[in-house]
Amino acid sequence: MSYECDRCDRCFNSPGALDQHQDVKNHYAYECRRCDETWPSSKGRIEHEDEDHNYHHCSQCDRGFNSYNALQNHLRSRIHTGSNVACPFCRRNFATATGVTHHLERGSCPSAQNVNRDSMYKFVRRNDPSGSISKRLLTWDGEPEPGPALATADRAWNGSFFQCYICQRQFTKITGLNQHLQSSVHMQQLYHCPNHECRKDFKTLAALVNHFESESCGFMRFGQVQSGISDMVSGQRLLGQ
């Protein structure tokens, strides 16, 4: 009986001789996806990629990622989690708690058009008397939705670009400038992380929820955020605020 090398045409009379050849010649079946090293098993290759190349592996998809966060984002995507978080009004399903919160904050829900960033902040502030996640803004009385006034081409043009009247950032197209103005860039910080070692500020509830889901400060696990968002933004509570 002969034993053939996986990577060349040579045959050997025993498994030991084949193994010695593969070890010396680097001819094992599983090749590293970051260098030319080979390994006798998929597990060995994955451990090498993780330890030597910081290349993180999804065993279900047999895909590698260049960072731990990239792998976690993949594992939290629809590929692995499906669409498990439902909007409390229109019942549209989202893969993450961030998705459903953003859907509501930007006023995109066809079944709850009065729910937006301002109404959600008022609701959260009312139900967060200790200011655990909401900032205590005594002078805040709501902001125009969805952001600062739109620019007009004649007034925003500075001779070369369309310029933001708030931050002076320049854009080649008026649509780009107005997308910038419609974003949360110039809106007030409404929330903060409750982790005292973090205390990062956020302009939207969706951004805070995304911070939790990313597990970047370790305050909450991804699954806890997904299971808790339904209570936070339940339809009855929001409509009855």
Automatic annotation (TrEMBL):
<dbReference type="GO" id="GO:0008270">
    <property type="term" value="F:zinc ion binding"/>
</dbReference>
<dbReference type="GO" id="GO:0001228">
    <property type="term" value="F:DNA-binding transcription activator activity, RNA polymerase II-specific"/>
</dbReference>
<dbReference type="InterPro" id="IPR013087">
    <property type="entry name" value="Znf_C2H2_type"/>
</dbReference>
<feature type="domain" description="C2H2-type">
    <location>
        <begin position="56"/>
        <end position="85"/>
    </location>
</feature>
<keyword id="KW-0479">Metal-binding</keyword>
<dbReference type="GO" id="GO:0000978">
    <property type="term" value="F:RNA polymerase II cis-regulatory region sequence-specific DNA binding"/>
</dbReference>
<feature type="domain" description="C2H2-type">
    <location>
        <begin position="3"/>
        <end position="27"/>
    </location>
</feature>
<dbReference type="InterPro" id="IPR036236">
    <property type="entry name" value="Znf_C2H2_sf"/>
</dbReference>
<keyword id="KW-0677">Repeat</keyword>
<feature type="domain" description="C2H2-type">
    <location>
        <begin position="162"/>
        <end position="186"/>
    </location>
</feature>
<protein>
    <submittedName>
        <fullName>Zinc c2h2 finger domain containing protein</fullName>
    </submittedName>
</protein>
<dbReference type="Pfam" id="PF12874">
    <property type="entry name" value="zf-met"/>
</dbReference>
<keyword id="KW-0539">Nucleus</keyword>
<keyword id="KW-0862">Zinc</keyword>
<dbReference type="GO" id="GO:0005634">
    <property type="term" value="C:nucleus"/>
</dbReference>
<keyword id="KW-0863">Zinc-finger</keyword>
<dbReference type="Pfam" id="PF13912">
    <property type="entry name" value="zf-C2H2_6"/>
</dbReference>
